[in-house]
């Protein structure tokens, strides 16, 4: 008997096959039982007709508990009514292991209960769909950068420096030295760009941020491209191409998942380069016009400000050239103004906030030394980083895309806690 996975059923119509799976849900009457089966690759309905199977098979089907594991044998048939398009006409059932009192029943549950049971909650249809979309974004990311001449480089997780400011660092001992969990691989990616030209990283990053919002995780995954000989405007073009590519890849390859999530795909279909750009100066003016009197030039935007700006557009929008005072030390000054830097944040539509932060980097040795001093950063800890400016320095730019915020936006999830398998939040380290 051929053992297949649910996702392969379309290639086996009319054949009798064996599936390993779990019982996601069940409905039955005296004559027929509908088993909702899942095997990780997908969900399918198994139909057990009393008149067509031995008595004990029907009795077993009727007695199954949610999440019991099974082998089932049956014939693959087409079924136009289901989203998947196929069904299994069950002939045999072998129970592998019973599940008892599975806590996540088809009724509604509170979020804290679901989070306490995250290890089981991952099995549900919606969470399964979000993880599949997350995987597609990662797959499309590798494809996009590999197709465009980038080399994947892995920066360290344990570091001695803090690119995004020292207040949000996780500290640990490194034998008799101090070390920090990486907030961003950027500085190492700059070194890698000087060796390999165009590089990208994908890895976990850590921020001890005391923020409890739907956009903040303590541990999140970031994609960080860095490009030698690429200036600010050219970097924005790469960013809009990249974001368009992942959205269009999800639309093409995750149709079943987007439907299961109830995502309005017409909004995603519009996500094609180019994206609009608005300067920080004009964004402040726009906010004042919209009645936000609480923000002045020189201050950073909060979530309500970003949402108000994003509402103006049906695509992600770049806010460019922020004041030098609210951005990190490494950003290249504007050529005509000393109060703003060559940077941009990309704000997602529909209230999902900043998904990318990026900039051109200071490449002048003297200016970089001055910036380190101004930011009270230890020149010894950054000696290697300064070296990059002394040994054939070139203009270069890069950016970081937060994976979980991007997944939340594309799937329409309410909160980033659903866009990572095991979220680390302010008050949560379990499971
Ligand atoms: O804007 P950020 O802090 O930029 C950097 O770290 C740069 N060094 C990246 C670079 O240029 N290579 O973070 C980049 C992105 C944000 O736009 C956001 O999407 C995400 O990382 N991010 C978070 N996501 C979830 N939880 C948090 N606490 C996040 N902090 C940042
Ligand atoms: Mg940022």
UniProtKB/TrEMBL annotation:
Q: Name a Pfam family for this protein.
A: tRNA_anti-codon
Spell out the coiled coil positions from the record.
none
The record's listing under PROSITE patterns reads: AA_TRNA_LIGASE_II (PS50862)
Report the principal subcellular site.
cytoplasm
Domain Aminoacyl-transfer RNA synthetases class-II family profile residues, every copy:
131-431
Domain of life the protein comes from = Bacteria
Name the chemical reaction catalysed here. tRNA(Asn) + L-asparagine + ATP = L-asparaginyl-tRNA(Asn) + AMP + diphosphate + H(+)
The entry's localization annotation reads: Cytoplasm
EC number in record: 6.1.1.22
Q: Which GO terms describe its molecular function?
A: asparagine-tRNA ligase activity
Question: What's the protein here called?
Answer: Asparagine--tRNA ligase
Q: Which organism is it from?
A: Viridibacillus soli
Question: Lineage in the entry?
Answer: Bacteria, Bacillati, Bacillota, Bacilli, Bacillales
